[in-house]
Amino acid sequence: LYNRAHLKAPEDAFCDSSNSCDPSRISDGASNDSASSGPCGRDDVKCWWNKPVTWKTDCVDTCGYEFVRFGDTAPEEPDGTAYPPSCGAGGLPGGALIVDDVPADTPVVRAGCSNSWTNSGTFSFSFANNSVETVYPAKVDLHQLGAGFGGHFWFGHTRADDAKGQRLKITGDWKLNRELDKDARVWVHLPDHGAQTKLAKYQIKTRNGWRTRTVSQPGDSNRWVKLGIFRTKGIVPEVKLNTITSDGTGDEDIAFDAVAFEPGDWDFVPDIVIPEGDPDAPDPVWEDTDRQKQPNPEGTTLAANKERCVATDHEGTRQCVKLDYDIKKYGARKWQQSKSSRSGVAAAAAPLVSWCDDPTVSGYTITRREGCNKLAVVIRWDHNGETVGTAVFAVREEILLENKAVFRERMFMSPLSLDASLGTVSLDYWDAICTPDCDEAYQGTWDGLTVWEPVVDTHWASATRTFTWNNAVSGTSQKFDRGTFLNFKAAAPEAAGAAATIKPSWTFWGEVECDNSVAVTNSTGCVFAKNTPTWQTNTKRYPAAAAYYWVLREKLADHPGSKKYNKPMHRMTDKVQQEHNRNTICNKTGAGKWTAHPDATGDTQGVQCDEFPFAATLESGGIPTPVVNGGICAQLFAQKQDDGTWRLFDDDGYDPPTWKEICGRASMPGKQNGDAGRGPGLSGFFTKARVQNGGAFYMEVPQMEGCNPDDVCVIRP
């Protein structure tokens, strides 16, 4: 241990006045910031040593000796083959212009790597310092390896964005040797090692200024990575990368290899053939026909479809109930028969919800104002642990909401099977409740007898309840919970007795929402808030605007308004916020300001800025922070063609769309822009569907649904 501890020379062994070094300044806190802050007293920090030094006098006994694997007569070993380089342009499209990190005439150090590509630019480094010193300490952190693209790449280490990090900052700059006449996709080459940072920030020079893309460099192969497509037409593009990262500590490698520019004619916007608009086309009529299947109400789902058993008031007798939405197993065909087609049965009341008769409707389904809940109620009686018999009833609830503070529920029931051992089976108790601030009342009496004979009796019985919102104060809204109580009795002595009805058999939580002058001014009404209605654009009146909305719905990453992706938009009624949203996205001054594209076609109202998602939605690009202007949106414009049709194009005055944007804006004919949100357009839809502030809705574009955004789509007039 003593010999190992004294193997190294003392710290001051190479420091004395002969090389302008002061041993007394050697310490852990010493630095080379100035000639007086560290042991080296020279301004250029070059206190080189050129004399012999002895610090061990007994080296024969205490020094170590090298291990020589190959003697003087051993032949030269072949070059290593670890980390083979990428010696061709594989992985790049044809026509890509490569700018390597070394000049074209630089010899390749890796055997067999004959580069078959042309270097189309220059690469250079710049090194930082503290702006006072005349040396560049960052240079000591630049290294090179014979690997990567062309058998060579550079690397440094990531640094924090502070004074020390900036002093050690290295910046690499790849510059093409020509001006481009097209926009270009930019590629960067990443080596299979010596590239460790996940936060490499590449800066790309474009016609609109510098743009930044962050890339994760680690990987197990040499590869080309796309940074994106940039506006390079009319400029000499370049790419920069420096060693500053948000997590820089001086530990992770950051690689500087080759870049490539791929000029091309890029199609950013789907090819849509749009007809001329019809200014007299009527708005689509919103119809409440969108049936949406809902989760089963609380109480209907039991683990493994188990029974819920309670004792009756007859000693030894229990009633066990199971609620089952799979009614097919109990005789679905009989259940799905039209009531009028059953001979010899009492006629029940007419349905409140006509489509509830549809055999394809099952479970709990709602439109905006109509609800249908179908299930089988299975009741089994046992006495002292032995089954007496089982009854299965088909139960159907229909709920009708209207533009008033009153809504109705109609209950239908009919046996699917009644065991003879039960004797007659009767309805013991049915009630439907509504809370809070809700008055309930029966509407008339039961339609049909509520007693059924075993085996053969399948007649229908029905009853209706009304519910009234009793606190409908103007400017307020209220969600209501509804519960259904249901119980039966059997006449057989061993199944006799009534079971206590303490809590609802099933419960709908917050399904019905009523408002007074919230969704619609001077109007009271109720809807199923969990049904998300769909607004249809007037594609015939404003086809260019509608096509633009469809493109953004399909292409933006958030798919605003898409039913397919379950991404509804949400109404926002705050007029001040709406105006803020418009001014933010369609800002006419400052950074990212909107300027009408010179090729956009106007109408009698000129060319206007059309933003999407709409300013009256919570998805508007003006709401998220820190959005400061519409320059962050995808930019398009509409243009009329010589044949009278219209097309959408990306606006080359701004960055190309990546479709990762949260919003879009377009140069659109003024009237088409205005008509899209006019009543009875979007605002009229909000009224008819009673969409409140924050209420969700989907958007549908007639004549375009079914189009493929990656293929040509023709809108028929």
Q: In short, what is this structure?
A:
The chain contains eight helices and 35 strands. It has about 725 residues and is mainly β.
Report on this model:
With 717 residues, the chain is mainly beta. The chain has 4 domains: 1-77, no CATH class; 97-264, Jelly Rolls (Sandwich); 292-331 and 351-518, no CATH class; 534-714, no CATH class. Helices cover 8% and strands 31% of the residues. It is built from 8 helices and 35 strands. The strands form 8 sheets. Strands 14, 15, 16, 17, 18, 19, 20, 22 and 24 form a 9-stranded antiparallel beta sheet that branches. It has a 5-stranded antiparallel beta sheet with strand order 2-5-10-7-8, with no helix packed on it. Strands 23-21-25-26-27 form a 5-stranded antiparallel beta sheet, with no helix packed on it. The N and C termini lie far apart (93 Å). The model is unreliable at 338-346 (pLDDT under 50).
Largest sheet: 9 strands, antiparallel
Global Rg: 39 Å
Measured between the Cα atoms of the first and last residue, the distance is 93 Å
Helix content: under 10%
Counting helices, strands and paired strands, the structural category is mainly beta
> Hey, roughly how much beta strand do the residues contain?
25-35%
- The 3D shape can be described as elongated
Q: What integer is the average pLDDT?
A: 91
Oligomer: single chain
Total domains, how many?
4
Q: Count of helical segments?
A: 8
Task: Please tally the β strands and state the result.
Answer: 35
Poorly predicted residue ranges: 338-346
